[in-house]
From TrEMBL:
Keywords: NAD, NADP, Nucleotide-binding, Translocase. It comes from Mastigocoleus testarum BC008. It catalyses: NAD(+) + NADPH + H(+)(in) = NADH + NADP(+) + H(+)(out). This is NAD(P) transhydrogenase subunit alpha part 1. InterPro entries: AlaDH/PNT_N (IPR007886), AlaDH/PNT_NAD(H)-bd (IPR007698), NAD(P)-bd_dom_sf (IPR036291). GO terms for molecular function: NADP binding; proton-translocating NAD(P)+ transhydrogenase activity. PANTHER family: NAD(P) TRANSHYDROGENASE (PTHR10160), PROTON-TRANSLOCATING NAD(P)(+) TRANSHYDROGENASE (PTHR10160:SF19). It is an enzyme of class 7 (translocase). Residues 4-144 form the Alanine dehydrogenase/pyridine nucleotide transhydrogenase N-terminal domain. The lineage of its organism: Bacteria, Bacillati, Cyanobacteriota, Cyanophyceae, Nostocales. Signal peptide: none annotated.
Length: 383
């Protein structure tokens, strides 16, 4: 079975689907591994590193895609410079594993089904104990949460820790993290390591103990409706609950030196957490890092991919933060991919068992059909 590693053509994508260490393991298991020349360069893995691990280097992109039994990517398939769709480059019945954003862009599932591609979307891996080693959203979100704090620290015109000096005592920075999922928890831990005082907010009361275990104060809002969706994600709440939540967090945002927002709902616009009015009440020099920038932003002032200043507050809307740490991001993602492949490849053959909850959730197209009812609903909503 031929496993091919594609070179990413997305402008801001520096990650690679497999690293030499995971390639070596797959080769020892009897797989043939092919790498598009230069695929690992932006992650600081050379073609020579992959050749030493047992991979074969391919210079012809069309050949690599067309002959792959399993094609591995990071970003969703794109249109190449020659105008050819990467999806159209795959042979029928090939397997594609990648981030695909099928809920936000359901048309991609339709195209994959038309090409009779068996596609696994890494966003659709269920949040279960058994699937933890395959959970690419979590592995990459952890990197984003860590990097968000470093970005905030570089932009903040103050120290993070408390310092006692001959010239006097410096008070620690106050950091407010909104959303205590994987990214939020990593942001809390990183901000605490840097010596700041941390508060965190989440509409899910179940995360309170995790927040407190990291040394942060949990800001709790009691809502009458259910706030946790399937898989442990935060659920979209009613307008009345959103209003109540904003009223609660306004004072905490106002007093913070740094606000890091991480709230996202799969397939939907990010919930608004920080309004323009709240920004206007913040201290001059304060910093907001909005990790939901690509989904419209948790802050009303966020501009994706830009750093702006509004009322003396710096608002940063980073895009694809995991890609800014491509070495470790690629290592973690490669582990996620190989763990998933282990589930449905036996003796170097494809064996899909749709009774398995992970395969059933992550495999979005097979045999010319879209398998996910959520994606079908998203497609129907576009009509």
């Amino acid at each position: 079975m031929k496993i091919s590693i594609a070179k990413e053509i997305e402008v801001c994508e520096r990650r690679v689907a497999l690293v030499p260490d995971t390639v070596s393991r797959l080769v020892k298991q009897g797989f043939e591994v092919f790498l598009e020349s230069g695929a690992g360069e932006r992650s600081f893995f050379s073609d020579a590193d992959y050749e030493a691990a047992g991979a074969k280097i391919v210079n012809d992109s069309a050949k690599l895609w067309g002959e792959a039994d399993i094609l591995l990517k990071v970003s969703p398939p794109q249109i190449r410079e020659d105008g050819i769709s990467e999806i159209d480059s795959l042979k029928e019945n090939a397997v594609l594993i990648s981030f695909l954003n099928p809920l936000g862009n359901p048309e991609i599932a339709q195209k994959l089904a038309e090409r009779k591609i068996t596609a696994f979307a890494m966003e659709m891996i269920p949040r279960t104990t058994r699937a933890q080693s395959m959970d690419a959203l979590s592995s990459q979100a952890s990197i984003a949460g860590y990097k968000a704090v470093l970005i905030a620290g570089a932009a903040l015109p103050k120290y993070f820790p408390m310092l006692t000096t001959a010239a006097g005592t410096i008070a620690p920075a106050k950091v407010f993290v909104m959303g205590a999922g994987v990214a939020g928890l990593q942001a809390i831990a990183t901000a605490r390591r840097l010596g700041s005082v941390v508060e965190a907010f989440d509409i899910r009361p179940a995360v309170k103990e995790e927040v407190q275990s990291l040394g942060a104060k949990f800001v709790e809002v009691k809502l009458k409706e259910e706030t946790t969706a399937a898989g442990g994600y935060a659920k979209e709440i009613s307008e009345a609950s959103k209003q109540r939540t904003q009223e609660l967090v306004t004072e905490h945002v106002k007093n913070a030196d740094v606000v890091i927002t991480t709230a996202q709902v799969p397939g939907r616009k990010a919930p608004l957490l920080v309004t323009k009015e709240m920004v206007s009440q913040m201290k001059p020099g304060a910093v907001i890092v909005d990790l939901a920038a690509e989904q419209g932003g948790n802050c009303e002032c966020t501009e994706p991919g830009k750093d702006i200043i509004k009322d003396g507050v710096t608002i940063i809307g980073p895009i694809n933060l995991p890609s800014s740490m491509p070495v470790h991001a690629s290592q973690l993602y490669a582990k996620n991919l190989t763990s998933l492949m282990k589930l449905f490849t036996k003796e170097n053959t494809l064996q899909l068992n749709f009774e398995d909850d992970i395969i059933n959730a992550a495999c979005i197209t097979h045999g010319g059909e879209i398998l996910s009812s959520r994606i079908k609903d998203a497609l129907a909503a576009l009509v």
